[in-house]
Design a protein that fits this description.
heterodimer; A: alpha/beta; Peroxisomal Thiolase, Chain A, domain 1
Chain lengths: 331, 120
């Protein structure tokens, strides 16, 4: 099977940084976030500048917790959803860390983490910052309607979160979650064209990557304390569970979805959260904390992304989707 | 007296129900829904059906966006009678110009005074 990664040196996540916007105070995970802004633009004049500030703060927090300054970092591997990823580009301009923009839409949290782990494994990185971010107003404006327009949303829609989550990846250190393996996803497109139903579009990609990861690495679902998908949301998560059952993969009750859990049961947020920052924020706060305190020993993170552009869906194209997986272990 | 309000509410409400169904059932975008309702109002007036609706429901028929389509056709036909074919072009915005100018003017004033915000 192709697309499988096995790490011999087990790079570790030495620290994480998660910064969110004001509406994210409603999240049950709020106490775990490093910084919460009261202002939706993070004190900046525009949404996009606020977006940049969010990820910059997250990078600085992760670096500080790991005992580094920006000059110590070898690579910056971050991405977002705004055109040409300008929020990440401006952040990289501020931090002056050698930078590669990463794009896998909402699966960027994992594609960047895997890339950081590969650079670390090759011996060329002593510290890499990997992660992803999204900002509600900036992303909604680009993909759907400007929020000021007040457009109605169907129940299947998901709420793009304002959040940035990054991880500082270093060569193996005892006492931190280690990156032991990964699976690069294939693009799956079953013909969904509705950008207000991303969960349904992404669920088959998540199920495909889960199946390939389990078969390719010889794992069972019960091997993991949790398998947590990125932002399928409530509707997508149900479809994903049905697809897993159809593939005859034996499951336990250890399946979670960051998007479905992000805002608890608050129906103001329709089918749950989404956005590049959604999986990154939960993986690098809740999941990371639970590993650090020993509640989780082995976890599988599967982040899902919809690889559409505003133009592609306006032209009636389908939504190609991807899911990348990474296995973390507390040795 | 009260019956005027009731018919206006019911007819205006039904036009909005059609718009909502175009959103929810036909899965159309707001722009598509808007265009369909405007064109529908325009076509209805072309067959002389929108004016009777206004006589019956008053504001119930003049407030929804379908009335804009009605006004477009109405102006075009009135001018066409006076000036022939060129009147179709000049008349189209004659009746509707107040609505268009008001949208531009109030939009401008609002954008000067207020700063748009999200849900926070």
């Amino acid at each position: 099977m192709k697309g499988l990664l096995k790490f011999r040196t087990n790079p570790t996540i030495a620290a994480t940084g998660v910064v969110v916007g004001p509406l994210e105070k409603k999240s049950p995970f709020k106490p775990l976030f490093d910084k919460v802004y009261d202002d939706e633009r993070s004190g900046q004049p525009t949404n996009e500048k606020g977006h940049s500030k969010l990820v910059e703060d997250a990078c600085m927090i992760a670096l500080r917790k790991a005992g580094f300054v920006p000059d110590d970092a070898d690579f910056l591997l971050i991405g977002d959803l705004v055109n040409q990823m300008t929020p990440s580009n401006f952040c990289a301009s501020e931090l002056q860390i050698p930078y590669v923009g990463m794009f896998s839409a909402c699966a960027t949290s994992i594609s960047s983490l895997l890339t950081a782990a590969l650079l670390t494994e090759s011996g060329m990185s002593a510290c890499s910052i990997a992660g992803a971010s999204s900002q509600h107003n900036a992303v909604e404006r680009q993909f759907r309607y400007p929020v000021e327009y007040g457009s109605q949303k169907p129940e299947t829609a998901q709420w793009t979160v304002t959040a940035a989550g990054v991880a500082a990846v270093t060569p193996n250190q005892a006492g931190f979650p280690a990156i032991v393996s990964g699976t690069i996803g294939r693009v799956i497109d079953l013909g969904v064209t509705d950008p207000f139903n991303m969960g349904a579009a992404m669920a088959p990609a998540a199920a495909d990557t889960l199946e390939r990861h389990l078969n390719g690495h010889g794992r069972k679902v019960k091997h993991y304390d949790t398998i947590i998908t990125g932002d399928l949301g409530k509707i997508g998560f149900e479809i994903y569970q049905k697809l897993i059952a159809k593939k005859k993969i034996e499951t336990t009750n250890n399946l979670r979805d960051a998007g479905a859990e992000f805002f608890g049961d608050d129906s103001d947020f329709q089918a749950g959260a989404s956005g590049t920052g959604c999986s990154a924020a939960i993986y690098f706060s809740d999941v990371y904390e639970k590993m650090m305190v020993g509640e989780y020993k082995r976890v599988l993170l599967i982040a899902t992304g919809s690889l559409l552009s505003p133009l592609s869906f306006q032209q009636g194209d389908t939504i190609p989707c991807i899911a990348h997986a990474v296995e973390l272990e507390m040795k | 007296m009260l019956s005027i309000f009731v018919t206006a509410f019911v007819v205006g409400g039904l036009i909005c129900v059609i718009g909502q169904l175009l959103f929810d059932v036909a899965n159309l975008t707001p722009a598509h829904t808007l265009c369909i309702l405007v064109v529908a109002g325009s076509i209805l007036d072309g067959f002389g059906l929108y004016e009777p609706l206004i006589d019956f429901a008053g504001a119930g028929a003049t407030v929804p966006i379908t009335s804009f389509g009605n006004a477009l056709t109405h102006g075009a036909m009135a001018e066409a009678e006076k000036h022939g074919f060129v009147g179709v072009l000049t008349g189209m915005f004659e009746v509707t110009s107040s609505g268009i100018s008001a949208a531009i003017l109030f939009g401008f004033i609002a954008s000067v005074i207020f700063r748009p915000k999200g849900k926070v």
